[in-house]
Design brief:
heterodimer; A: alpha+beta; B: 2 domains; 0% strand
Chain lengths: 370, 280
């Protein structure tokens, strides 16, 4: 039983305030992913949990025990490093056994533990090799084995896949997910890759500037981002943002208008806001439908089309906006650059953000959630 | 086409001529010492660049002097002690200076470097008092102490630089495995530092082996001398004769261990330098 609780945890390096009042609860057996842009403090937060950095303020509890002052080995955590950090002069066996030997386990039980770990990670045939004779994926597995060998309550991963090539990354991602299912240990995983976060996590923690932006399941974050930052960070290609003006505030059917898309009625709560307020409309690429709409006046020129095989992205030029409007369409889409199209927005899936970047309450639970 | 070929040939000849010149420059003094040592004293002042017959009488004469043989043992004792102490202290200091963040780390490194800048003569009298007070005068331990003062700065600097290049995650991995700083140093860092340790150890050995001034000042009797002093004090049959043959033979004898050590460790020095990689 290893519930991990962070209570208003802070970290300062000199004058730099890296982590600000982070409070989190991580249940036993949960797979939690910290995600955010570089410099958001996600790795620092992981190192605070590991005990590699000291906590400047707040409390860290593992299994109901305050561990702020405990050394890493006393916290019952294992860590997989970004560069793997295998001991280059030791064989795979010695790498995995190192921590066990230091814990004064007897020879027989060390061998048993190492062999069991190696079996789980399919490293049995590699035990006598040195790290330099291993491939990237194998090194990755050894690093995981080393972290697992002492049977920690919590496994910490610091961007473990960023050194692998794309296809191996997908494969290792699957292996990590299966490993977690099998071991059932609590995992805290740091990545800057939102796809890794979406595919692996039970719960995603989005960090930005040392603050927790939102915590939730991948689906929750995708469908109900609480801020413009989360909305833009989760999802690829990222959500489109367009400036709109609120024309008729309402509890269920708010009307906004945009010079490019015309008037839109959105099932979002804008009660209490003034008409004429500038807002930001957020719409995911798959929630835009294109047609030639000869009869409408709001036509947008196609700037580019990307064919991906199973689907295609159509980029529309929006006057006055810095970024192109991305639409996800079928691969057989007839649109080519230079043509003009009408973009129709699926209003039930639209998001509205106020000037501070906070999302306004959506009144429609999504199709999937319903 | 032929001009180009000619140019290439000339360049090649020029290159090897330059190499030959440099090799001559570097090797000739030692070569001449070897030649001289193999001549009987009667042939000493005939200038030859090649020896016609080998005469080992100089070697026999040198090795029959018990004080010289004793001085070789003294040198071995002193040099190995200096290397051992320098590496132990240097390695632990390098861990602190290269791995532990603390206030004044840069200042400590600069002071260490500054100490090594004093000429030996400047500290000679002060050191003499220290050695007298510690009752180490005319013992090898006095030499070990004084040599260590001069070998430690560069040992610490080289090992610190090397220690800093080792990836930080390696140490953190050891910490996560529950290793104390000492275990990390001995079981994780030291195996990776062999090339640096071989290099610095060799330099310290050479420094201790060849040192003259301290050895002359801090020893009194023949039985406590080291080889450089022993060689300098080899005397001939009369005060008007300098036994060059014996001096050269003695010099060759004391240089051979150094050459052997370099040959033993050179493979380590070269091969080990790249073995510490974590990624790739």
């Amino acid at each position: 039983m290893a519930k991990l609780v962070l209570d208003k945890v802070n970290k300062r390096f000199g004058n730099a305030h890296i982590i600000r009042d982070v409070s989190l609860e991580i249940e036993n057996g949960e797979f939690v992913v910290f995600v955010g842009p570089s410099g958001c403090g996600k790795s620092t937060l992981l190192r605070l949990i590991a005990g590699l950095e000291s906590i400047s303020g707040g409390e860290l509890n593992i299994a109901g025990r305050r561990v702020n002052e405990l050394a890493p080995r006393e916290r019952g955590v294992g860590m997989v490093f970004q560069s793997y950090a295998l001991y280059p002069h030791m064989t795979v066996y010695e790498n995995i056994a190192f921590g066990l030997k230091l814990a004064k386990a007897d020879k027989h039980s060390v061998r048993e533990r190492v062999e069991q770990t190696a079996r789980i990670l399919q490293l049995e045939t590699l035990l006598d090799r040195k790290p330099k004779a291993l491939s990237g994926g194998q090194r990755q597995r050894v690093a995981m084995g080393r972290a697992m060998a002492r049977e920690p309550d919590i496994l910490l991963f610091d961007e473990p896949l960023s050194n692998l090539d794309a296809s191996l990354r997908v494969q290792m991602r699957n292996e990590i997910a299966r490993l977690h299912d099998r071991l059932g240990s609590t995992v805290v995983y740091v990545t800057h890759d939102q796809i890794e976060a979406m595919t692996l996590a039970d719960k995603i923690v989005v960090l930005n500037g040392g603050i927790v932006e939102q915590v939730g399941s991948p689906r929750e974050l995708y469908e109900h981002p609480r801020s413009r930052f989360v909305a833009g960070f989760i999802g690829s290609p990222r959500m489109n943002f367009l400036p709109v003006t609120l024309t008729a505030p309402d509890r269920h059917d708010s009307v906004v208008s945009s010079p490019h898309l015309g008037k839109l009625t959105l099932p979002i709560d804008t009660q209490g806001l003034e008409a004429g307020l500038p807002l930001t409309l957020g719409i995911r690429p798959e929630h835009i439908v294109l047609d030639d709409g000869a009869e409408t006046t709001h036509q947008l020129p196609v700037a580019n089309m990307e064919f991906l095989g199973n689907e295609a992205y159509v980029y529309l030029e929006v006057a006055g906006a810095e970024e192109l409007l991305v639409c996800r369409t079928e691969a057989t889409t007839p649109w080519r650059s230079g043509q003009s199209v009408t973009a129709r927005i699926i209003t039930a899936s639209a998001h509205l953000f106020n000037a501070d970047g906070h999302a306004l309450q959506r009144q429609v639970r999504d199709q999937a959630a319903a | 086409m032929s001009i180009r070929l000619l140019k290439a040939v000339l360049m090649k000849i020029g290159f090897w001529a330059l190499v030959a010149l440099l090799v001559c420059y570097a090797v000739f003094p030692f070569y001449y010492a070897v030649i001289t040592s193999l001549k009987p004293s009667s042939a000493l002042f005939q200038i030859d660049y090649w020896i016609n017959h080998v005469d080992l009488s100089n070697y026999a004469a040198v090795l029959s002097q018990s004080s010289f043989v004793q001085s070789i043992w003294n040198s071995i004792l002193v040099a190995f002690c200096v290397v051992g102490i320098s590496l132990t202290l240097g390695l632990t200091a390098a861990y602190a200076l290269g791995r532990v963040r603390f206030r004044g780390r840069g200042a400590v490194l600069m002071i260490v470097l500054g100490v090594s800048m004093f000429p030996q003569v400047a500290v000679l009298s002060g050191l003499f008092e220290v050695i007298r007070t510690l009752n180490l005068y005319n013992t090898p331990w006095g030499l070990v102490l004084s040599y260590t003062i001069f070998t430690l700065p560069f040992t610490v600097w080289i090992l610190t630089t090397f220690m800093r290049q080792l990836p930080g995650e390696l140490e953190e991995a050891a910490i996560m495995d529950g290793a104390t700083p000492w275990v990390t140093l001995v079981h994780v860092f030291m195996p990776l530092m062999w090339p640096a340790m071989a290099t610095t150890g060799l330099l310290a050995f050479i420094a201790a082996w060849n040192e003259f001034l301290f050895a002359l000042t801090f020893t009194l009797t023949d039985s406590q001398r080291t080889v450089p002093v022993g060689i300098a004090l080899i005397s001939g049959g009369s005060q008007y004769e300098l036994p060059w043959g014996m001096i050269m033979a003695a010099s060759v004898i004391v240089t051979v261990p150094l050459v052997v050590l370099v040959i033993i460790f050179q493979r380590r020095i070269v091969s080990g330098l790249t073995a510490g990689a974590v990624k790739g």
